Amino acid sequence: MKKTLMVAALTGVFATAAHAQSSVTLYGLIDAGITYTNNQHGHSSWQETSGSINGSRWGLRGAEDLGGGLKAIFTLENGFNIANGKLGQGGREFGRQAFVGLTSDQFGAVTLGRQYDSVVDYVGPLSLTGTQYGGTQFAHPFDNDNLNNSFRVNNAIKYQSVNYGGFKFGATYGFSNAAGSFANNREYSAGASYNWGGLNVAAAYLQLNNGGSTNTGGAVSDDFTFAATRQQTWGAGANYTFGPATAGILYTQTNLTGLTGIGASASGFSSGVTLPSNSAHFQNFEVNGRYALTPALSLAGSYTYTRASLNGVRPNYNQFNLQTDYALSKRTDVYLQGVYQRVNEGSGMVANINGVGGASATNSQVAVTAGLRHRF
């Protein structure tokens, strides 16, 4: 009996020690809501929607302590539509993220796999479309700067530094994986951020060559935003938190050369506009803010002005976004948000709020969503 108790005790000690050295965490988020849109292809609509703010997902995150401040890490993250149970990101098993790597307390982290680019990593958190305060529907037109991570980077190697007194930097390179065509559908990006007290500042740059090309094994394949010879996106922003309030501003610019196609957002073109066959440009100016009325109740809002140039057509977009959120617990909250988008008349463009399921038949569109989010 004593031997049995001793074996059981020793087994528990070793199991505890092993658990302390390595871990695997199951996590997730489910976002479901009801959305009213005043005009989709000429008709109003009521829809059950998934991921109106944050895409529904579940994932596994793990780490193994290798000693000396070095760890092996991995993340496998699946995206799905809670309304119908289908996989997201083109039906991928782990379409949101899938990577493995090493992280050092002294030198930073190097990871390999399907990952986010540096614009998403550094500038995204300063925009309401890159946070829990607005998310998908608050994206800039066509998500032209990818702040709402419409695409991820395949075949990517990423470096992220440690925090040097509030300063961090990183870079990502996505291989084309094409023999003899090293630059055909490759990506590279870099960014940096600085935090001091309540101040956050960040900037990043991305270049994608031949995204959405016939090289489907490259950096960006079927989830591309634009099919173009070259896509260049850069942005910078800042926000400041004082007490329960945060105010921010940011600017992004996307330049496209040899544009031949647009992904899921193509419905934002009316029949009177020819798809650009040479170049296109987008400039986005966003001001945003949020305020915690109580520990549970918050308000957030933003205004985005987008100036575009598309094959001689120069549409200007104005988008107003407002959200109120109430936390029922640390893991569950309910929200109500509204978006109004208007594009100038005479441009031949129609309004198309991101994530509502279809473009308007006119130059304006309104969407209102009541939703529930649960984290685990």
UniProtKB/TrEMBL annotation:
Entry keywords, A to Z: Cell outer membrane, Ion transport, Membrane, Porin, Signal, Transmembrane, Transmembrane beta strand, Transport
Porin domain residues: 8-343
GO cellular component, one term: cell outer membrane
GO molecular function, one term: porin activity
InterPro entries: Gram-neg_bact_OMP, Gram_neg_porin_domain, Porin_dom_sf, Porin_Gram-ve, Porin_Neis
Localization (cell): Cell outer membrane
Protein name stated in the entry: Porin domain-containing protein
Organism, scientific name: Paraburkholderia fungorum
